[in-house]
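Checklist before submission:
- one chain only
- standard amino acids only
- sequence pasted in full

Submission:
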Amino acid sequence: MSTRPWIVDDDLWMLIEPLLPPWPEKSPGPRPVDDRLCLQGILYVLCKDIA
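Returned file contents:
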């Protein structure tokens, strides 16, 4: 197991990315955070057991 299990490698991201809904064309503002970075943040919180 990696020392940083929250890092999403390219192979895993290729499986996950098609499952995410597309970003709306006419959104009210810029995309706030890249989807991959957001997922890594969620995994980090879960791996570190942060409340």
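Reviewer check: The mean pLDDT is 87.
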